[in-house]
Amino acid sequence: MNMSVCFARSALRVKRTRYNGSDGHNSAQMRCDERMPDYLRPHLLTLPIHRAMIRAVEARLFAEMVPELPEPIIDIGSGDGTFVQIALPGKRIIGIDPRRADTREAAQRGVYAGLCVANGAAIPFADGSFAAAISNCVLEHVVPLDQTLREVARVVRPGGVFVASVVGDRFPRELLGTWLLNRLGLNGSQYGRWFNRISDHHNTLSRSEWTRRFEQAGFTVEVCRPYLSDAALKLFDFSHYYGAPSLITRALTGRWLLAPPFTPNLLWEPILRRIYEAPAPDDAPYYFFVLRRRYD
Question: Does some domain include residue 57?
């Protein structure tokens, strides 16, 4: 039985904002724009290091590559709402997520026009309800993937935009633990498989395979931008262990950081800013896709 619990502050209305896509690999180099908000510092004051590192980069990619995302928007895997609160404030977004606790926390943030406890494989909205969809580092966790992508295509109107950041097949191979074990003459792939398992990664696909899955579901790829270099991923791996105490803080207080203005996260800012401002690598452990819903 497919169960969903939804609420919204007001009815959906499509705002027909035109999005001008571009070829991602040639034009997706990060450009310096003094008018763009800084997304690194807010994440460092909110999240543990490993999350702040990658979410800040993703927030900047949204600002650079889809600055005029048409509304209303559906967020597939809205989680606790932290990302939308920092990266997409003021946008008319409906979030869906299967986890009730995260959805309750997202509701408390007050950044969504509506939220549903629902599975992406059975989205509780009519065909063409949304002008755009987003899914930030969620699809690698999703089972069944293809059915979920077909559902996203169903609820996004023809010509609409779907923005998805995903984990690629380089991820388990380029982790610090994998590299260290290989250097010691051991089987580093075991570490990569373990890390994927504890991260609940079911889909770490190559760029070509992600493209095939999106196209099969009814989308055309307009941009595929690799992000977070292999070297940055090794720091990302290390920072999981450095930030492990934040799990206790989260469990006891509901917050990742006890005193954000005094967080030692800020000591990492000079290093992380170089990662945040880095140009696109030729290939990377993560991919940022901008897709267009095909006309049937």
Answer: yes
**In a shared domain, residues 51 and 108:** no
Per-residue pLDDT of 140-175, as tens digits, reads: 999 999 999 999 999 999 999 999 999 999 999 999
Same domain membership, residue 188 and residue 44: no
Does pTM surpass 0.85? yes
Beta strands 286-293; 156-167: pairing state: antiparallel
Quick one: 154 and 248 in the same domain? no
The string of pLDDT tens digits covering residues 187-224 is 999 999 999 999 999 999 999 999 999 999 999 999 99
Question: What token pair was written down for 131?
Answer: 């002008």
Long-range contacts of 10-16 (CB under 8 A, 24+ apart): 10/113, 12/72, 12/94, 12/129, 12/130, 13/72, 14/70, 14/71, 14/72, 14/130, 14/131, 14/157, 15/70, 15/71, 15/72, 15/92, 15/131, 16/70, 16/131
